[in-house]
Amino acid sequence: MTVTNYGARVMSLRTPDKNGAIENIVVGHKTVEEYMNPPGERFLGACVGPVANRIGGASFEVDGIRYHTPVNDNGHNTLHGGFIGVDNMLWDVVSVCDTAIVLHLLHPDGQEGYPGNLDMTMTYSLSSAGEFRVDYLATTDKATPVNFSNHPFFCLRGEGNGSVEDYLMQISASHYIPIDAESIPTGEIATVEGTPFDFREPHLIGERIGLEDQQLINARGYDHNWCIDKTTDGIELVCRVSDPVSGRFVEVLSDQPGLQFYSGNFFDGKENGSNGKPLGFRSSLALETQKWPDAMNHPDFTPVILRPGEQYTHTCIYRFGVTE
Questions:
Q1: CATH number for the domain harbouring residue 285
Q2: Beta strands, E only, 181-292
Q3: Annotated catalytic residue, options 29, 151, 224, 314
């Protein structure tokens, strides 16, 4: 794996296919300049926050005080922290070795409207079991929303190859969060039963993605939060995606209550990846472990307010392997 401390981005992640051929399976840019001034997709491989996903109306209330965040999405909302999210900040490298890197960031009080000095340490580590592990730890000196996530785009046939519609997916969730036409949660917690969002048993991603379903129309495909059927408070398997052509699979393990699955609906082939190949429509996907989106504005959603004296912790594991 190759990592930069600009946005704590994963620039490449190389794994073998069923024949032992090793390829980069995450999307990246070719140069640092493209990461800093992206020609298209901004969040390739980045850590996103301090509040991942969207904030409806670009505002929220904490303890009776209304805070306003940048309008960087659809003219009304905040996406992945704002214009200067943690993906656009330079992280300190605390330590690095062959299998791990520890990164630190202070998101200062008032930056882009968020209260509190948010002090965050994040560790990326690789294991001989084929696991890429992300561990987050954060504290604050003022009550503030915290909901970090990671945003690698996976191409299981190698960067720029194939379509995610051919992948087989399973998600351990009996409910999901419906969205409006601007991808803001409606407040409903809906059953997946009888819908294209039911991945409790494995389905091809492309099997139902083109149905005349209003939720799929709103997002131009899948870009929703699944409410994980948690059985413990700890780390457990929440998702599995496999590619029958390369044999590669990725399993997602997490201690978080949500998983945002994005099927790469806004790639259009006009932008090239790090290997020069066009990044086509639905040629990669993101699997973002997190709390539920826009939770500050929906009392029934998972709580996201971190207070002084508390610790925010979050572990996500991407486990890779091959099937014959």
A1: 2.70.98.10
A2: 190-191, 203-204, 223-228, 236-242, 248-254, 258-262, 285-290
A3: 151
